[in-house]
Write a structure and sequence with these properties.
- With 317 residues, the protein is of the alpha+beta class.
- The protein has two domains: 126 residues, Gyrase A, domain 2 (2-Layer Sandwich); 182 residues, Gyrase A, domain 2.
- It contains twelve helices and eleven strands.
- A five-stranded antiparallel beta sheet has the order 5-6-7-11-8. A four-stranded antiparallel beta sheet has the order 1-2-4-3. Strands 9-10 form a two-stranded antiparallel ribbon.
- The chain is globular and about 70 Å long.
- The relative contact order is 0.15.
- The structure holds flavin-adenine dinucleotide.
- The site of flavin-adenine dinucleotide has 10 residues, from helix 11.
Length: 317
Amino acid sequence: MKVYIMGSDQRAVRCARVSFGKDEKVDPSRDKKLLRFLFRNRHASPFEHNIVAFESRKEEWVELLKKVENPTVQLYYSGGYIWMNLRNVINCYELLPEEVISELKRAFPTIWRIVETKGELTDEELEDLPYTTDRVFLEEKIETSSGWVGLVDRLELGTEMDYYTFVVECPLFVARQWMRHRFGSYNEISRRYTSYDIKFYIPKVLRKQAKTNKQASTDEPISEPLQSEFLKEIRKLVGEALSFYNRMVEGEVAKELARGVLPQFMKTRFYWTVPRISLDNFLTLRTHEGAQKEIRELAEAIKDMVGYKGTDKRNRL
Ligand SMILES: Cc1cc2nc3c(=O)[nH]c(=O)nc-3n(C[C@H](O)[C@H](O)[C@H](O)COP(=O)(O)OP(=O)(O)OC[C@H]3O[C@@H](n4cnc5c(N)ncnc54)[C@H](O)[C@@H]3O)c2cc1C
């Protein structure tokens, strides 16, 4: 049986550490303790960024579905493979074929041991475990006017459920649009935890409101002198908001409250693991001229990296 895996022990750590903005750091001793903490405390979403696909007939998939009692477990079938993320695997692994389990143990040795022992490992036992890391931080990165997108990994078997993981840095209002795309997994920096590396998008040019489409803009800049005046005012307001935020944090105000004064131009960072059918849907909707320019540029960057395959055309709606 062919078994394909995307991810590593470290992948779950990266997606957890993005909460603190420290997703680039690798320290196996601390990483392993973090994995144990995540498992014990049911911080489950970082595990969703690891993916397994294994060869199967459709009938075997249906048989497996019949055995799964837990309604949250999602098992997809596409192109002759069953597709699952590691969170789903952990919730039903006793039902999976032995060949799949042995590949999972090889790909995620630390995570697997933590699961098997229900998180009851000492620090010394953790220290002795093998730990798998990502080959590179990013395969490719493209900058846009408001942020950047990086390709972390992909598992391409030519199906509608091929998987991709991206890291995105963009303004808050772009991230809000992005996260309406529900078919996929997200982990994002948390401004409850960290005041680390706060950055803002300041547009180079202020575009005019579109006349025909109530939610869109045109490419036409607003005229001078208002253009320069407003841009200056934006920089001033953003600078003042950040100073006030820093003063509040220094004055022991909780970050979860102090962040309320930070404007929507603030950048956020998130990991996005998405199947091809949902990615193509995103590309169709967000490269369309009706989408906001800032998200359109990021969608175009993703299209340049991994292409568009048209799998979303299967959906009537
Ligand atoms: C130009 C533009 C303007 C928009 N304006 C607004 C707005 O004003 N307000 C607003 O709230 N949103 C707005 N949206 C967001 C939009 O309504 C969708 O939520 C977003 O585009 C995600 O699309 P999706 O649901 O197809 O994707 P996903 O959530 O990723 O879903 C992917 C696919 O999975 C299936 N699916 C997922 N969840 C369900 C479900 N619960 N039931 C049935 N099928 C499901 C569908 O086939 C869907 O196409 C806008 C989007 C665009 C592109």
